[in-house]
Design a protein that fits this description.
Elements: E1 21-25, E2 28-31, E3 36-39, H1 42-45, H2 54-64, H3 78-90, E4 95-101, H4 104-121, E5 129-132, H5 141-146, E6 164-166, H6 174-184, E7 190-193, E8 197-198, E9 204-205, H7 208-221, E10 224-228, E11 252-255, E12 267-272, H8 273-279, H9 298-313, H10 316-333, E13 339-345, E14 348-353, H11 365-374, E15 377-378, E16 385-388, H12 396-412
Helix pairs in contact: 2-9, 3-9, 4-8, 6-7, 10-12
The chain binds pyridoxal-5'-phosphate (PLP).
Length: 414
């Protein structure tokens, strides 16, 4: 039987097996045929506390009994109001306004539109966006424009807008900082970065000192600083936000993946008052022209509220610290001649399997994915980069099994 479903980032012509998942629990995906998969990548980085956290599931059920989607222009509802208030409490105080949307890409699109709207409404139109080499901000045309160009967006390149790209920081990052200084002299609208770690670009890590310096340069030149914490938010790097480790507060912050604990889609773009005030006026032409049909879905907002309660009432940061320690021990023990560039930030580890060209399409990535799947592990290497980003609740035995399989892959495949 062939399925009519067209899957994301999947080459259907290769007829790779697509397991049918029937149930989830904690860090485990249970397939309909009885197989069990350890979710070593948090189902593409969304699941934080674990699948089906009881409080989040209960909040969804309770809210579903009261209200489904309602229009969010000119109307409001309690889950959205309470979640916004809760976000303002837990996030840096300067980020005083919350705009809802429904995916990470959309939260970034909103951030870029806010930045351009800010400059236009101040009577000083600016359009250029500064980005970092190897970054990833989503798969819509706007966010692809901000991200690294490659085979995955080759068909669309004629439509992508021009950006100024900074080299990825190495060493003390001076070349990056110098390039940012130069770019800022051209009066761009904003710099957008993934703080401390570039995810889809290959789990590339840079230091808090460099992030702090980039923020300072933007402030000096009056260039808006946008932090895309869609992946890094909600504790992945060891702190609630990665920006915290650099002591910086962005002008605009994008959050999605872990916002509902990974249970249902929701995103927010949080902004400083100056950005909101630039759009507030008695002139309707200055309003913020953006909406999605499902803006601030009440059921998703209720899940987000439950996530905030979990952060407030449960020892989430202790779990993150514990997982980070276990990750560090496992990574250190993975002393193998074919495993190079072992690196870690908080709960995320990454490494390259040597002996293969780092090519996303033709490298050993797909072969590795099948190898891990056969061992009951959901890992999805990017080319020859293998990374481990599990839900915070993963059992020690399951984590050990992941690293044993990576060592076996290095022996057998690399
Ligand atoms: C996943 C991701 C996005 C896009 O989020 P979607 O919900 O997949 O649209 C944007 N930025 C970063 C840093 C991400 O990791």
């Amino acid at each position: 039987m062939t399925s009519p479903v067209w899957h994301p980032f999947t080459q259907h012509g290769l007829n790779e097996e697509i397991p049918l998942i029937a149930r989830t629990e904690g860090a485990i995906l249970h397939a309909a045929d009885g197989r069990r998969f350890v979710d070593a990548i948090s189902s593409w980085w969304v699941t934080t506390h674990g699948h089906r956290h009881p409080r989040i599931m209960a909040a969804i059920a309770d809210q579903a009994a009261k209200m489904d989607q309602i229009i969010f222009a000119g109307f409001t509802h309690e889950p959205a109001e309470r979640l916004a208030a809760g976000l303002i409490e837990i996030m840096p105080a300067e980020l005083a306004h919350v705009f809802y949307s429904d995916s990470g890409s959309t939260s970034v699109e909103v951030a870029i539109k806010m930045a351009l709207g800010y400059w236009l409404n101040r009577g000083e139109p600016r359009h250029r966006i500064v980005v970092m080499e190897h970054s990833y901000h989503g798969d819509t045309v706007g966010t692809m424009s901000l991200g690294e160009r490659g085979v995955y967006n080759r068909a669309y390149q004629p439509l992508l807008f021009d950006v100024s790209a900074l080299p990825f920081p190495t060493g003390d990052g001076q070349a990056t900082l110098d390039a940012l200084e130069a770019a800022c002299r051209e009066k761009p609208a904003a710099l957008i970065v993934e703080p401390l770690i570039l995810g889809a670009g290959g789990m590339l890590i840079y230091t808090p000192a460099i992030l702090a310096e980039m923020r300072a340069i933007c402030a000096r030149h009056d260039v808006l600083f946008i932090a895309d914490e869609v992946m890094t938010g909600w504790g992945r790097t060891g702190t609630l936000l990665a920006c915290e480790q650099a002591g910086v507060v962005p002008d605009i912050l994008c959050l999605s993946k872990g916002l509902t604990g990974g249970a249902v889609p929701l995103a927010v773009t949080m902004a400083r008052s100056e950005i909101f005030e630039a759009h507030r006026s008695d002139d309707r032409a200055k309003m913020f022209f953006h909406s999605s049909s499902y803006t601030a879905n009440p059921i998703a907002c209720a899940a987000g509220l439950a996530n905030l309660e979990i952060w407030r009432d449960e020892p989430v940061l202790d779990r993150i610290a514990d997982l980070s320690t276990r990750q560090a021990a496992n990574l250190a023990a993975l002393d193998h001649p074919k495993i190079v560039n072992r690196r870690q930030i908080g709960t995320i580890t990454a490494m390259e399997l040597a002996g293969d060209a780092p090519d996303y399409l033709d490298g050993i990535g797909p072969k590795l994915g099948a190898f891990f799947r056969a061992r009951g592990l959901l890992l999805r290497p990017m080319g020859n980069t293998v990374y481990v980003m599990p839900p915070y609740c993963i059992e020690p035995d399951d984590l050990d099994a992941i690293y044993a399989a990576i060592a076996a892959a290095a022996d057998e495949i690399a």
